[in-house]
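Protein record

Derive tokens from sequence
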Amino acid sequence: MAIPLRDLINKEDNMYELTCLAVKRAAFITKYGDLELEQHEYKVVSTAITQVLESRVEYFYEFSE
């Protein structure tokens, strides 16, 4: 599976935020693996972006004072 460009173009969220999340998710998948890798032909970035675009990755902001 390739990167879902149509979904990426139609997404109206903060693109910088989504990019940062996809980069961190891809690093996590590279280190620990993911059950969906086989489905995406072992393409880490495609898997990470798909999970981010489908809101299957939860995240939160951590502020330090």
